[in-house]
Structure formats: C-alpha cells, structure tokens
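[job 0412] stage=fold_complex status=start
inputs:
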Amino acid sequence: MSADADRRGWLKGLGASAAGLWLAACDKLTQNPRSLAVLQSAEGLTRRVQRLVIDRKALAREYSPADISPDFRPNGTIHPQDPDYLALAANGFADFRLVVDGLVERPLSLSLAELRAAPSRTQITRHDCVEGWSSIGKWTGARLGPLLDRAGLKPAARYIVFHCADTLDPNAPDGLRRYYESIDLIDAYHPQTLLAYAMNDRPLPIPHGAPLRLRLERQLGYKQAKYVMRVEATDSLAHLAGGKGGFWEDRGYEWYAGI
Amino acid sequence: MSDTPPGKPTRVLVPRHSAATRITHWINVLAVSFLLMSGLQIFNAHPALYWGAKSVFAHPWLAMEAIERAGRPMGVTTIFGHAFDTTGLFGLSGKAGVQVPRGFPAWATVPSWRDLASGRRWHFFFAWLFVINGLVYLALSFLQRHIQRDLWPKGWQLRPAHLWHEVVTHAQLKFPKGEAARSYNVLQKGAYLAVIFILLPLMLATGLTMSPGFDTAAPWLLDLFGGRQSARSIHFITASLLVAFVVVHLVMVVASGTWNNIRSMITGRYAIRPDAPTPVADAAGEAA
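[job 0412] stage=fold_complex status=done
writing structure:
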C-alpha cells in the first residue's frame, strides 16, 4: 500500500512539476523578444492571406434598425480630460477643425459643417471588440476615400494616420500617451470606411468619440480611433510614438486587426 | 508473459501508426494545447458568452465574475441564470489572500498573467500550425487510405448488438489484447472521426466567423452559426468537448496499456498477444 501511495505521490509530484515547468516556459517565451517575434510572424501571414481571399471592396455585413444595440458599450477613453478637447467640447465642437495633411497636395482644414457636406454614407454595422464582445450601431459619416482625393495623396503615401485628442495612458513616457491609429490605403478607400459624426441618428456622443471617429468595419474596435483631430498621410509608421502604428499596437496588439 | 513454451511468441509488435499519423498527432497535441490555453486567456478578456450577432450585456448565457458577498470577494459562474460559487477556480482565483478577478485561473492560461495581446499572438500562431498540420494529416491519411481503411467503421461494427457489446466491454475497461487489438474498435473510430471531421473543423470555422475581416469574404458563416456571438459560444462549447475527449482519450490510453499506447504513437509499433482471448461482454468476465 505504501509503495503504491509512494508511487502515486511521486507521479502526482512529477505531473505538477511538468505542468509548472510548461507554464513557466510559456511565460518565459512570452517575455523573450525573439520567441515573441516568432509568434508575431503569424500576423503577416494572416494579413496576406486575408487580403488575398477578401475582395478589396467586399462590404462588412449591414444589419437592420431592429438589430441596433441599446447597450452599445464604449471602451478605451470615455471622457477625455485633455484641456484642448474640453475647450472644444464646451463649445459644442463649433470650433472643431479636422486637419488633413502629410503627404498630400492640398492640406485641408474642415469644420464639422464641411464634413457633413462631404460625400457620406450611413451603415448599420457590428462593432467587434478585441475583448470578444460585439455591439451593433448605426453610423453616418464622411467617406474617407473622397476626402483623401480632395486633399490629393502624393504617390509616396502608403498609410493614413489618425491623431486623436485623448490621452489614454497618462503614465506612459512622453509621446506614448495619446491615442492614435493607422491603416493602409486599401482600407482607407474601402466604401464603408468613414469619419463618422453621427451614431444612431444623433450627433456622435462623447463616450463614442465626439465629434469624429473612424469606422473601419472589417477590423476590430481598437483600430476605429475616436476623437480624431488630424488625418496624416505618410510613407512610414516608424517615426510615430512607439513606431508600431497605433496606441495598442505599441503595446503588443496586431496592426492588422482583421481577426 | 514468459510462462509459455519457447518458440511460440506471446507478444508481437505490429505496425500501428504511420509516420504521418505519429508526427501530425504530436504537432496537433502541441498546437491544440497552446490554442486551448491562449484561448482561455482571450476568453478572460470578456468572460461572458451570448447568442446571436451581438452581446446583450445584461443577459449572457454563461458568465464568470467576481462579486462581493458579506465583505468577502467571491467567484461566481452563472450558466443559464443559475449561479454557482466557483471561488478559486472561475471568476476569482489566485494565491490565498491575493485572489484576483479572472475567468479561468492563471494555471490554465498562456501567458499566466492577464495579457490579451500576447494571448492572441500565441493563439493565431498556433492556429496556423494547427491548420497546416491538419491539412497535411488529411491529405496523407486519405492518400494512404488510413481514413478509409482504419477509421471508417465496417458494416458489421455498426450493428446494434456489436455496438452494445463494445459499450459494455468499454465500461468494464476490458480491451482486446489479441488479434482484435490490431484494429480500432467502433467506439474508438466514432470518437476519432467525430474529432477529426466535426469538432476540429468546427473550431476552425467558428474561429474564422469571429474574424470581422473573414466575415466579409464568407458572410454565410455568420448565417451558419447564427451570428458572431453564437460562433464565439460554439467555439467555447466545442473546445470544452475537445477537452472532454482528451480526458477520455487519456483515461483509455492508461486503461488499455499506457506504455504500449505511447510507444505505438512514438515508434509506430504496438504489442499484441495473438493468442489472447477477445473480451466478452458478460457479467462473469472470464478475462479477469
């Protein structure tokens, strides 16, 4: 009996140590930049294959008004405390100007009225958060493609960067505190890619990014920058903040968030 | 095993698993283990499941959360409206005194700490390995006729009397050691076919349905599974069924000869005793 119990105890101990070692190894591999780079290599494969199988103009599913979520959850920054933003908000965003610059022939500075007059689209779409939940909302906004054409992209332009008004990580080093995002030109010219100023037929509420947020329906929620102040055309993402093309990308998330 | 006359082999090693089966099996073990543990990390970012296209936050059909009761934190798992105290396992777990709110405990997730970004990196890397490995397995197994010859049940195996016989001998943990051990029994075949052709493809398909990008290429997936949140629920349920399969699989490995089974999946050779009787499903149990 004792020999049997001994053996059982020994096996149990072995099992527990093997599991412990396995977990410790996984944790170490996650912290090691080289093994993490191997894991991250899957992103390039996913992006290339998705670009290959998804038609460039294929639309994300659009839903009916009955499907709209009454409990659409805002995430990330919900009430920006940045003084410049608070000043704009206090005035109902009457003084808001969207700047379109960078690698463009004709830099733009547009008021909300001018954005509302630009070629627009309304769509009821599903917002998929990286955390796993989904909400459905109705968005109206200026289509990004025609706006970029108005400014005239220079041939060197490869990415569109969205600079935001909100500080999401006040404790980060200088230059890494504010939200920003970036997309490529395929997504920038997708018909459902909007700078939305209305949600569910009302002006965009502050928790959802007033006065202007990006809608990018074929990628996850964190790509869809809120509180957009400036749209910059650029040939590289390396010079911005952490160099990975977005606030969450600088913190380890995928730049291509189609999955 | 050595009390038989010399010259008459009581134990012969027969070829059991092809190199293709063995290699893809172990790669699959690796990939599915990482997929499970990184999947639980991803689940922990929002430990609640819904049906339909969207999340109705007030009505998940399954949720794990930490609540306060009588001044003490408590882990609660709610399934279809029924709440269970799962402190230490689901909803709230960790070392005594420093328990933290989290869906699944640290020992079940990769990485062990809360890190959705890294969990996703692990998950999608091993998802690719899983898919490529699975395609290699299917291609080789059809070409080598492994599926047609070894996995597909024979007509006589599907007769109710035989099925019942297999159920009873399995329940008694009596397994053939002789000639009958050369091939898979019908319950084994059913379990393997279900895993290979239903559960694992379902994991992939429901996983892809959660991709907002892939949805635009294959919107029919949303209709097939009843919406993205349904797909997430089915992904979770199917993963649970796979865990249940692995548990039964491991119990059967141990019950029917641990080292013989492990050897056969490493070297390909499986020991049988040609003169051993086939178990009979009666109460007398003469094999005992």
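[job 0412] summary: The longest strand of chain B covers residues 62-69.
[job 0412] exit 0
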